[in-house]
Design a protein that fits this description.
two-stranded antiparallel sheet, mainly alpha, about 160 residues
């Protein structure tokens, strides 16, 4: 008998277990359980929601760190002017501290919004919604604000 005509055991996926069955065997446990109304029990969904939340937290920390860097960049320029003894009427960036402050505040807001969205998503899962709807307004608003900050930073660099 050639090797390709031989029947091999098939695998059946049932919930969390992988069951290997011989051909012709019927295993009632291998049938996925019907969807129950109520709490979503699959831990992978909760873990995916937590990973998304942690990604938002990392983003907010990066925004806050970037804001601190922007604010300190203006201080570095002022200190360099003092060491080099540039004339007093030279152009000093006054927007850097305010832009840095804005970025830090934006990072705090992103962290708060992500916590609220995570809590609402988990509560919807616990209430039995298999796939709660998620608004795309928050990521789009974040992108728009970052575009504006980038344009202001580019304008500041051009005026130096």
């Amino acid at each position: 008998m050639p090797w390709c005509s031989r029947q091999l055991p098939r695998s059946v996926y049932s919930g969390y277990d992988l069951i290997i069955m011989a051909p012709g065997d019927v295993n009632i446990e291998a049938v996925p359980p019907p969807h129950k109304a109520g709490r979503v029990e699959d831990p992978r969904i909760y873990l995916a929601a937590e990973r998304t939340f942690l990604a938002w937290v990392r983003t907010s920390l990066a925004l806050m760190g970037f804001g601190f860097l922007i604010a300190r960049f203006g201080l570095l320029i002022r200190e360099t002017e003092a060491v080099v003894q540039m004339p007093e009427h030279s152009h000093r960036p006054t927007i850097s501290p305010w832009l840095g402050f804005t970025m830090i505040c934006f990072g705090v807001v992103v962290c708060l919004v992500s916590a609220l969205r995570y809590r609402a998503y988990i509560q919807a899962l616990q209430a039995g919604m298999a796939n709660p709807s998620v608004s795309t307004r928050t990521p789009l608003a974040m992108a728009a604000i970052l575009v504006l900050v980038g344009l202001v930073m580019a304008a500041q660099i051009l005026t130096l």
